[in-house]
Amino acid sequence: MSAALRFLSKTCSSGPVGPVGLLGPVGLLGPVGPVAVPARGLRGAAMRLVQFLRRGDDGGGGMRVGVEQGEGLGVVDLTACDPSLPATVRGLLEMGDEGRARARRAVSSGRCVLDRADVRLLSPILNPEKVVCVGMNYRDHCLEQNAPIPREPIIFNKFPNVITGPEVDWEVELAFVIGRSGKHIKEAEALSYVAGFTVANDISARDWQMKRNGKQWLLGKTFDTFCPLGPALVTTDAVKDPHQLGIRCLVNGETVQSSNTDQMIFKTEQIVAWVSQFVTLTPGDVFLTGTPPGVGVFRKPPVYLKKGDVVECQIDQIGSILNKVV
Fold it and tell me: Of 20, 154, 307, 321, which residue is least crowded by CB atoms under 10 Å?
């Protein structure tokens, strides 16, 4: 393997969206009829949960939990408002309704609001127990590679550390995070187990994914820093319909992927129900739901990321993450 590449967290420059972190330490790196509306995970508690450092505290002030007042706006410092709250979003989710109620009270108080310039956002989830990914989950992505539409979800994973070989590719994805534990979850109840949604980039080393390691996907997907995630965990009540969202990826300002989550073959509820047949889901588990067409490996000729490239992933209603290859 030569010329290892890593992904550096940078501040977003387009629109009102702010900085992002990595999934890991920040640094270098059917028929229609009457249906019941499924319960959502954070009913009546629409928030944009973030993890952050205060500017100037990078040397040891510690990670903090907050709530964005809106995309790119100020952040309510939950850690300052209620020091007894956990210092991670995962810890807050593990508290269940109590933790979210206390977060809502802090936001309603109008106290402890930090200016956006004083905040450096990290990934909204760090060190999850599981990072579960769904392959070939966009109809238009299957079409671009002349692949059949899967009849069951194709599941693989990344390690939580989620650098790389010379053939590095981009994949913008809608991600969701589990908010409470469960197994054998019914599809009709699945959204009540989802805490919220965020933006992910499923960075992929295509040489390791497609040519080496027996063509098994794991190693090509799980180098350090290979899952930029952010900018916030947008709770389910804040997203009108996660399966009707514009989704885009830009490389050096050029749009390389542009689609809509309505192209997803298996929706969030189906994915939760399917995976929970096999493993117990726990708060903080991260799911990546697949990517639309436009990835570099299927271009003619193929295009791969190189040092200095800037990758921006955007999803409507959720935000944007921007990372530089270093």
Answer: 307
